[in-house]
Design goal:
single chain, 2 domains, 4-stranded antiparallel beta sheet, 9 helices, 20% strand
């Protein structure tokens, strides 16, 4: 635990919230609830953390405190998993989910329908990209289109929810050296990613794509997962992304059906010749 404590301490200066969240999560998986951030650190906020961890040794202590002080929380003793929700996704961890062989209860999922309960009729949409960014979503069935960035995401979230798209259940390797089971719903992001990856196949130079996937994708994922967004290395890595996306322009046609995002066609002004075999 000493090596993990030193590693965690070094990461705190770049991401207080991520470090404290990960430390809390480690206690749910059997590690000591005592805060590992007791090592000397120049950050003046560090001394506040031990008091919190000493008072609240685990999730049940937090639930008890909330109940005694009439603090409204979604979690209960019967449904103690934690959630973290934003525009992009919602995550579920801890509680009964700590057993990787327990099937998540149906009532846990909040953002999407179960695929088996999704409509029997598929829905077709198209997404337009410019320089790798979504700029327009057409939904012919509703006779609607969306061009504002937030509206695009909200519309795709609604479509993903309707068609049961975007659920995953995985076991992760945490920064602090433990494995953690997490369940996620990312309806709109799942649709966007499927369309974007497909369009890259049509428009992106193969060597650029290979270099991007061998370095930028892996390193940026590691940096973000470990909570190191506000760092020089993140700035360095993300500076390569705009150049890689310069030719990712075009439209992708999709079919949404019972948890699946099926690409049915794509076109791009970057493609000026027919394919030959």
């Amino acid at each position: 635990m000493d090596a993990q404590a030193r590693e965690m301490t070094r990461s705190v200066s770049s991401s207080h919230s991520t470090a404290s969240s990960q430390t809390s999560k480690s206690s749910h998986l059997g590690e000591s609830p005592v805060c590992p951030l007791r090592s000397p650190d120049p950050n003046p906020l560090i001394h506040l953390l031990p008091e919190f961890y000493d008072r609240f040794a685990g999730r049940q202590a937090l639930l008890t405190y909330a109940s005694q002080n009439s603090i409204p929380v979604v979690q209960t003793a019967a449904k103690p998993w934690s959630t973290d929700e934003n525009l992009f996704h919602i995550s579920y961890e801890a509680g009964i989910l700590e057993d990787p062989n327990i099937t998540p209860p149906a009532e846990m999922w909040k953002l999407t329908k179960a695929p088996e309960d999704a409509p029997q009729t598929p829905e077709r949409i198209s997404i337009e990209f410019k320089a790798g960014l979504p700029v327009k979503v057409d939904v012919p069935g509703d006779k609607k289109n969306y061009t504002d960035a937030v509206e695009i995401f909200l519309a795709l979230n609604a479509l993903g929810r309707k068609h049961g798209i975007g659920r995953i259940d995985i076991v992760e390797n945490r920064f602090i050296g433990v494995k953690s089971r997490g369940c996620y719903e990312s309806p709109g992001a799942t649709i966007l990613r499927a369309a974007h990856v497909d369009l890259e196949g049509l428009t992106l130079d193969r060597n650029v794509r290979a270099l991007r996937d061998q370095f930028v994708t892996i390193e940026l994922s590691r940096i973000l997962y470990n909570g190191h967004f506000f760092t020089p290395e993140r700035e360095f890595v993300t500076s390569a992304i705009p150049a890689s996306q310069r030719t990712v322009n075009g439209v992708v046609r999709l079919k949404l059906y019972k948890g699946n995002v099926v690409v049915e066609g794509r076109e791009s002004p970057e493609v000026r010749a027919f394919f030959f075999w």
